[in-house]
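Lecture notes, continued. The same structure-token format from the folding unit now serves as the input rather than the output. Read the line below as a description of shape only.
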């Protein structure tokens, strides 16, 4: 196989950037949405708006996941770690697609700030990759755990009849916990409390902005 040049990798990253940010009518994914197994139930406009806000937040989180993994994949020292990060980003595409489908179904839209979230997360991922594989994996494990906590919080806010969104969020939560476990098993370092705290504050900003816009 041909060795990728710096230009090749740059073009690949630009391609991934565009693919993550441009929302197609139906994004190709490996698994169908868990929500497809359920029928849409009657909901009030206020309920639909709230669920759309939550799904916009989750979609923005998945945009960040794409960027974090791609950024880490770019700067990871070991080729195997680079490949692992690219594989993880590919797996997260299912989540991105499921959130987009649910937003379409609710006649809503992704966050207008997604370009900002992607760019910031890409830089954070690239810096984590430069710190070495143990720290990079520690960053993955902590990110996935924080995402899982958000998903559980959102699950508790869903109207009881919204089986579609519930099925999506439950499967996403199962996947994110598995991603966190995989990172720990691969030797993730425990991040300092101050870094975890900073990550929570950044995530709070993303959550508040993406819910409305
Ligand atoms: Fe995800
Ligand atoms: Fe994940």
């Amino acid at each position: 196989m041909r060795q990728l040049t710096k230009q090749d990798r740059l073009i690949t990253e630009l391609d991934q950037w565009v693919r993550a940010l441009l929302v197609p009518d139906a994004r190709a994914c490996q698994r169908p949405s868990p929500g497809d197994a359920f029928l849409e139930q009657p909901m009030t406009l206020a309920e639909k708006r709230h669920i759309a806000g939550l799904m916009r937040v989750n979609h923005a989180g998945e945009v960040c996941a794409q960027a974090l993994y791609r950024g880490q994949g770019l700067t990871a020292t070991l080729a195997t770690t680079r490949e692992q990060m690219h594989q993880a980003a590919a797996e997260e595409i299912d989540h991105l697609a499921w959130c987009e489908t649910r937003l379409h179904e609710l006649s809503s839209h992704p966050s207008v700030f997604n370009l900002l979230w992607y760019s910031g997360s890409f830089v954070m991922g690239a810096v984590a990759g430069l710190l070495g594989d143990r720290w990079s994996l520690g960053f993955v494990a902590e990110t996935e755990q924080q995402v899982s906590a958000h998903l559980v919080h959102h699950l508790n806010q869903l109207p009881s009849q919204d089986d579609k969104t519930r099925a999506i969020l439950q499967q996403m939560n199962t996947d994110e916990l598995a991603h966190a476990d995989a990172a720990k098993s691969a030797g993730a370092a425990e991040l300092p409390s101050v870094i975890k705290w900073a990550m929570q504050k950044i995530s709070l900003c993303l959550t508040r902005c993406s819910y409305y816009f």
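Point for the exam: Residues 65, 92, 144, 175-176, 179 surround fe (ii) ion (ligand 2) (CB under 6 Å).
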